[in-house]
Fold these 2 entries.
Entry 1:
Amino acid sequence: MRKSWTSHLSSISYGLFVYGLGALFLGFMVVPVLISLSMSFTSGQTLKFPPPGLSLRWYAALLDPVQSEIVQQAAWNTLQIAVFAVLASLVFAVPAAFGMARISARRANALEPLFLAPMVLPSLVYGLALLIAANLMHISPSIWLVVLANVVVFGPLMFRATSSIAQQLDPSLEDASSLLGASRWSTFRRVTLPLLAPGIYAGMFLVFIQSIENVSLPLFLAPAGTTILPLEMFAMLQDSLDPRIAAISGVLIAITVLVLVAVQRLTPFLRDQGRS
Amino acid sequence: MKNPAFPFLLPMLLLSLGGFVAPMGVLAFYSLSAGGNPGLFGNYAAFLEDPFNLWIIVDTVTLGFKVVVVATCLAVPIAMLYWHGGRRLRQTVVVLALLPMLASNIVRTFAWIVLLGRNGPLVAIADALGLIDGPRSFLLTEGGLVIALAQIELPLLLLPMIAVLSRMDRRLVEAAEMAGAGPWRIMFTIVLPLTLPGIIAGWILTFASAATNFVTQAAIGGARLIYLPQFLYRQVNILFDWPTASVVAFILIISTGSVILALAMLTRHPRLIGNA
Amino acid sequence: MPDFKMNRRQFGLGLAAAGLSMPMLSRPGLAAGSVTVATFPNAWEQAYRKVIVPMLAAKGTTLTIAPALTTAQIAKVLAAKQGSAPPPYDALLLSPGDIDIAVKNDLLAEVDPSKISNWSKLAPASQGKYGPTVTLEVDGFAYNPDVVPKPTSYKDLFENPAFAGKVSWTGFDSNTAIEFYSEIAKVYGSGPYDMDAVFKLFKDKKDFLGPIVDTTSHQMTMLQQGEIGVFMASTNNVAQLKALGAKAEFTSPDTGSPAVPVVIVMTKGATNPDAVHEYMDAAISADAQNVLQMPPTEYIPTNSDVKLAPGLAAYLTPETMSKLVYLDWGTVAQHRAEWTKQFDRVVKG
């Protein structure tokens, strides 16, 4: 078949759009991260761009138990909170996303605002509201309260990321499974959950990162004496433009890339499902 | 509700009622009862009577929309790059798409101060293209804020899109190609419509996050651009005026929440589901 | 603030689950001779752990340093009071503006000077009803000599063309900013609280205003990147910038440097008032302040036995110290909301 010149033009412009603009915008997305990373390798004393020279001293400082004892403790606390928040979001949000796709649109429209509302509220206000409410019930600030708050505020991210896929699932698959005698729960586990996996992974990532980043919730809800990473980073910036802040991001990026590579070998998250 | 999907919704429902509705109820009580304004909704009336405050609400919602539009323009080519890419390219796109979230908010904001500043590359580019006359700073301008927020929130739009694309069947497209449809036509009539649930999920996350991202709004936007979250932050942290803070919080929930609700209802629109 | 107690029972059941105690991160113990005190995070936290904790340990008192931003300190104590629980901190670290809020909400207890042996070493201004001043923040102009000449007065900043567009300001959210606006009000208006004069000045001299931002740390970043030439800062901010190799100098305005005390206060219902007094005593002792006035903290001492270290003396000339300006934070608190509102309208772009 001979292609007309308009169809050639269309292919060329489309190729430019996808590969040219796609790559350019991907670059736009990454450049600020590279700037942050480059500052973490500075040989100077402050966060500054461009860095006056390169060194690994701030990574060394971060790992040094004497210089960075407080930061390490804070990172450990924050990590525990984030892990619990991710696990709890799985329990609450994933079944909800599935259930939401299986009820009538009218009911779903009535219920969804309730599930999404925490997303539009700055966490500062929710943190304050929960602090007041908890104290009225004689519950004093604790790590569990921080975890609860993280699940309430960031669970909707998991819910939303999963439900976009749940809505596209074909109920006939489940019907088939039920006809074969599988219980509703085992159908969910064996058939539905693997199909939801890409959304769940995206959700886990979002909840984890937000839980690590958030200042307001632990600010109000953590018990006295428990320090958390974003609060320390905030103070490090105010005190001295400390380059360890950039180094912390560098460590986080390195860990995430490693985890992604590992996950990619174990799960179909990155695997090309459409082809094969 | 005798619906078999109900048990799946129950945990999230209980979490919402106990963890979100109850504390917000305390705040609602605060917003109605405390403070010196007469009448049940006196505090709300006092806030809404001031045209200056009304403009802050409008500005906040508009900011969310602007960021969603810019982020969508950036996300579509990247998503199409992912769609056309082979295994390696797809993996690269996913990893790069996650990166912006990994650099902590504080460091990311710092990078944007560098990028948007008087001596930064964006100013140089805009100057070279003749978009501005003479060097100036994009810091503390709404344009600069929208660009920075679009980059920071882009993963929230890309991740749900990629999650949907990763499990989309390529045979649909092959059939269309065989029928002689050009690439643009396939993108607009097949790929993007099928991705729509992911896009809308992404819009919801991006809008909510951009409209409530206090840290970036404050650091890049400065004190001259005022949005509801900054207003809230001040009432809570500086003035300790919790009743007014509660009022502003509910106004923020209602104004941004109604946008999100409309988007969420769109995903269940019968026409749209018919297409997908 | 309304009394919430009567509504307590109306609120949700679901929260009960959250009351479980945390096995891995338990709240610091409340054994006899222990005390939990709030400080600012990071630098302050680290310094107090290193210097004050051992001093109290020597007396058999366990001191737990709990880093928290001012907001969280007040919010947690206030919420605990509304739930009739003991305060989560026995002592707080506050500035006068925040002390005013805490006092209004009845969160603080008066101290007993007879239990603090170093009390007499403090200047009368530092002997507060609710606790001792442990250090002062002394403020002035931070400037980058590569970008602007040395500023000497407020008139310089608004009338000398060399500064046009180079001076960065913050809003009324910042205590430091309020002090400077009060000083400007004295120069351009009828007195320290005549903010209308400041607002008029901001309207008339639009070209002279540089970036108006939210926080000092943002200004430190911009000064370092050469984005601005001057901002209102503490000697501490400038010492930090300089020690870290950034181009920055400090100078006092000709009308004197504004000063903000940092005060340790005791919360009402503190579990162990004697230990809190011990803590205050240690924090104002010459031993502690001699260490804390050295880098990296460089906290200005308030104990009269402490001789100013050379590092601090470079900024705090006798002339600067003799011309410190203090603000009446009670008056500020009355007007703060209104001023903030006005300022928003003046600067809104």
Entry 2:
Amino acid sequence: METSLNRKAKRKKRICQILLYAILSVFAVICLYPVFFTLNSSLKDNTDIFAAPFSLPGTPQWENYVRAWTIGKMGVYFKNSIVLTTATLFVSALIGSLASYILAKFKFKGKGFVYLLFIAGMMVPIQTVIIPLAVTFGKLGIVNNFPVLVLLYSAFCLSMTVFIVTGYMKGLPDELEEAAVMDGADPVIIFFRIILPLSMPSLVSASIFNFVSAWNNLLFPLVFISKDSMKTISIGLLSFFGAYTSDYGAVMAAIGVSIIPPIIMYILLQEKMEKGLTAGAVKG
Amino acid sequence: MEQYHRNKKIIFLFLLPALLVYIIFECIPVLQSFYFSFFEWPGIQGVPLAYVGLDNFKALINDAQFHRAIANILLFVLIGILTQLPIGFFFAILLYYTKHGQKFFKAVYFIPMILPVTATGLLWQFILKPNETGVLNNLLSKLGLENLCTGWLVNSKTAMMCIILVTTWASAAYYIVIGLAAMNSIPDEILESATIDGANTWKRVIHIMVPMIWESIKISVVMIITGVLKVFDMVFVMTEGGPNGLTHVPATLLYSQAFKYNHYGIGSAISTIMFMISLVITIVSLKIMNKEDKKSATKERGGRKVWRQV
Amino acid sequence: MKRKIIAVLLTACLSIGLLAGCGNNASETDDSQVKSEPSATTETADTSAAKEPEVTITVLTRYAGSDVQAQWLQTMMEKFSELHPNVTFQDDSVADEAAYNNKLKTAIATGNLPNMWMQYGAASLVEYAKNGLAMDLSSLLEDTEFTLGLADPTLSSYNLSNYGVDGIYALPFAMQPEVIFYNKDLFAQAGIDKVPETMEDLIAAFDKLNAAGITPMGMGAKDTWRLGHFYNCIVYKKAGVENIKKIGSREAKWTDENIVETLEILKSFKDRGAFEENFEGIDWSTENANFLSGKYAMICVPLWFIPTAEASEIADSLDFFQIPYFEDAIEYKDNSAVYTDAHVYNGKLEGYEKEITLEWAKFTHSAYSEEVRLKVCNQLPGRSDINTDGYEMSPLMEKALVLNNELTTYGGDVFEYDEITSMQDVIRNSLVGMMLGTSPEDTARSIQAEIDNNQ
């Protein structure tokens, strides 16, 4: 009696397990298949893409990637995106962590207001500022200007950086600074030697979040970059898609070029990326 | 030490760069945007702004395209919450109970999230192409479901829904990770005590887990709302608001008005209205959930008590 | 060391790609260019060139990349630099429409105008002229030798007097009448022995083709200009060019009965099965590819399609015919849709830079220039006085020339006569919207509403 009950429970448990993994696998296919499909198609020629969309490529058409990289200029766009994003991360991390240090540790009138001002930025959609910026930049003749774009991108990274890093720095004990202050060390040295290294985890989280938003940004380059040689990968991909719609292999390869680096980066930094991207949701 | 933390010079110098960049590139433009909504400018250098009062807002109130954009964004918010949240938390719960391969599945689910939105939009646009060229249609007809085939991004019944669901595809993983993190922070004893009491998994989830992770559900809802209200990229990439304005959301309409038709004032008015709407919706949703929070908190306490007694 | 290897690899990749890219489409135009090379130019070299100041002429067009006229622009810039060694060119051209518009928009908003740019229609031109951004070209009219050979000798195409602006601010370039290209084999297969002459014939052809299981007409309406172009043809043949111009000058309305009727006709074509299902989601390049692989019997497209048609694998089966006329609107039989690019020149220029820019304008609209366009790009010339001696024209081009000479009354895109910038999108989008279910009356109303809201 007891054993049969036990067996029943065991069987039930096993069915549950199978069901669980079945559901998990179906969802995994839904998540991965479109990506796989793109990479798969990127190695086929036009006829194959439509005649046999679900099969593997017969002979891999690597020329698709060559075309995407050269005619599609994905190489140039790629480099531009890297330059722009790296500079943005550097600037926003530097000025953002300096400000966070003050907001976390120092005492002054209006501190609450300044902090709130920064945090409120998370609510501001990019499209709110795009028209005034276009008008102002137009008046000043600023266009195709990477340094200005870096500052603009950084401004939109600051809210998240300040939010995450300030929260983290608040948790650092004052004693860490104390000895250095007693020794009369320069505040800049205290910041760079003591505070910054200790806050690195939070800065990494913030930077990953900022990386994704800067790398993906479509509206700013759409409006402020008109030179082909300065386009970023997001608008470059769009214009390549517009101009070569019927060269499906190359278009798929171009998409492939744009999605492979983030996937590799994710494989390398899985935990850190998950943490960084969801940092906004977890009270810091 | 106290003195060091009140040093005005340090405060000023350290804060200045960030404040300058932030004020110049974000704060001032936001204010300018309100200001511009009362003006018109044709986008030609040297032509001054012309004051038009409330005309831009009046024009929008009578504009069918704007109505459509507002309706679309509200649908987007609603469906966004109804899909992203349940899918996210459902799989978070499943993963929580997955002993082997939890990390693997989580990684797989996260991949759509890290793709550039442009790439996501374009690859789905390709999959959703009309007629036999579309992969989805191709798949459906292979499965013998020809009658379901349609021009997914053209058909007025499906176009907006497709964009919304692709957005869900691309962002549900966010809530899986958030949900999983929240569940992992639940102390084991609580769940264990329930197991010993003989509560089955489903009951455990409802009665213990949901209240324990209520805080993160709340944050997720607010994040979906604020995220969706900002949406531009996905719509712009997939349909550019077409066909015939069918899939416009305020942000894409703003882009067309300002940068295609040179109606910079109308564009600014859209951004002002959107700013107000998102402010109101965010505050209201926070309020509602706080209220519910209180209610459910009392209920939950009662519930747990009953549980213990059994 | 590592860096060097990467650099070498990258260069190798790049050059392979470039070679592969060139092999695709340039080969065919290359030999024809060689032929045109010896044909001497009538321009006399400027002897005083050495004394002239150095200038850079910035050109912003869509003649780039895969555009058929990209070669023409390159040739013109080369030749002009030979004549004027002090002139260098900065070519900002980009083929993609959205990218082009973005560039032009930025240039206008920042005041960094190129010396020459192109655009369609009067809408923005009026604004530019009023604000001194576009150069008044009236002085060119004095040079009768230049104007007489032009297809439009009075330069009336871009007359802005209807909008209260005097002067001439744009040169029409590249006349492109819209026609219907068709696949002779598919017509024969469906038992159509005579090319449609009237719209009634065309509709009968739709029915026959449908009966034979052939899609009558390709229509990549996802690119809204496709449907817009077809509508231009219908409205001009049914209601006349003059009546569309009247809408632009606000003497008529979109909701007028005769215009609504044209919308009804367009819609009835869909109901008649003229296009495939879901054509609203198909783009132009797919339409183009499908037509050239024999999937459609017809497509409605301007004559710039000739080189593409002739280069295709089914070139021998392709031909074109004029847009059929309506038997009940015989008075508009000679009204046609003909597109031109407006070439506009920077109105802020002064002194020598203005002079040389005008010189460039003349040069690019000269008989020599049109000869290059014909011989290198296989494009219909916009002048009557070009030298075609010893040049063997393709049959399609021959036919196109005849058609071009017969043109009497023509108009461009219907929105070109409207001052409101948004009309282009509003009209084209509304047409697509109509195909997706909006009634013709409501479509007319929504287009008219855009005008009324902008008053």
